[in-house]
Amino acid sequence: MISLLQSLSPISSSPTSRNRNGVRPPLPNHIIQYSRRSFYVRNSRSEDDYHSTLKALKSRGRIPRKSLGQHYMLNSSVNEQLSSAAGVEDGDLVLEIGPGTGSLTNVLVNAGATVLAIEKDPHMAVHVRERFASLDQLTVMFIFAPDKIYEF
Ligand SMILES: C[S@@+](CC[C@H](N)C(=O)[O-])C[C@H]1O[C@@H](n2cnc3c(N)ncnc32)[C@H](O)[C@@H]1O
């Protein structure tokens, strides 16, 4: 984990932050608008991950829960960097804690890894299981209580 973190480039400042004169810098290309608490993306793979997950959750009467750290990746190229920095390759077995929308999971399985994903929120676990239902490269488990783990 330490070598993974050391090999990643520093994270740039938030797109919503203002410079010293109180002026916001131009938005990166994939971001079209931001409000006080959120911003919206266009034409990127992560838009699909994020918005399809929001729709799937909404159809079950759910919204992301901040108490579970459910902040999701909008820039999927970061997932590619994570996978590449970890040297994930064909045939690897990866333990992913908290797959959320499955955006990193997707990159890992595309790299040829078999993924064991453990998700605390059963709604997210169902979502990610359904998303990759056609693959036998993924096992999703969810934690019901610290001593009870269920496999899908
Ligand atoms: C930051 S989000 C996942 C990000 C994911 N890579 C994405 O972009 O969609 C963290 C996920 O971890 C899950 N989670 C939180 N606490 C957990 C725990 N103790 N064990 C397993 N999963 C947990 C949350 O429900 C959430 O889906």
UniProtKB/TrEMBL annotation:
GO molecular function, one term: RNA binding
Keyword ATP-binding: no
Keyword Transferase: yes
Broad enzyme group: transferase
PROSITE patterns: RRNA_A_DIMETH, SAM_RNA_A_N6_MT
Signal peptide: none
InterPro entries from the UniProt entry: KsgA/Erm (IPR001737), rRNA_Ade_Mease_Trfase_CS (IPR020596), rRNA_Ade_methylase_Trfase_N (IPR020598), SAM-dependent_MTases_sf (IPR029063)
Record's compositionally biased regions (Low complexity): 1-17
UniProt domain Ribosomal RNA adenine methylase transferase N-terminal: residue ranges: 78-148
SUPFAM superfamilies per UniProt: S-adenosyl-L-methionine-dependent methyltransferases
EC number per UniProt: 2.1.1.-
Coiled-coil residue spans: none
Region (Disordered): 1-28
Residues engaged in binding S-adenosyl-L-methionine: 71, 73, 98, 119
Domain of life: Eukaryota
Keyword set, alphabetical order: Methyltransferase, RNA-binding, rRNA processing, S-adenosyl-L-methionine, Transferase
Family of this protein: Belongs to the class I-like SAM-binding methyltransferase superfamily. rRNA adenine N(6)-methyltransferase family.
Record-given protein name: rRNA adenine N(6)-methyltransferase
